[in-house]
Amino acid sequence: MKCSEILPPFTCYRVFVRLKTGMSGSTLVFAENVAFARDLAFALYGPRNVVSVVVNEESDQTNESTNSIKPPDPAKQRIQSLRDQAKRYRDMAKQEQARQKIQKANQTLTKINRQPSKPATR
What we know:
Elements: H1 3-6, E1 11-18, E2 24-31, H2 34-45, E3 50-55, H3 59-68, H4 74-114
Antiparallel strand pairs: 1-2, 1-3
């Protein structure tokens, strides 16, 4: 049984929020009315960060587009997972190389500091 069979259809509201960077962004909220949409936005982003809540004019298109999104098939998910894993390993290799360079430099520095300095002769 679908949610739309039991409950009245939700309206799509566009919420404009203030971001930490000083810029503003927008997101979509589905709610029964503007008061519920505002309350949801306040709960998610805080009352001081919500700039405005308006009815989204493209709400019919948005409802259709959210229903038509399909998850990727398992084969594509596996390939993407392997790509992500390879990227993580490349990053780990770079970090390890940098760590080894720093360790070698510290050993060289320690070796230089341990050598007794020769008195200056004229």
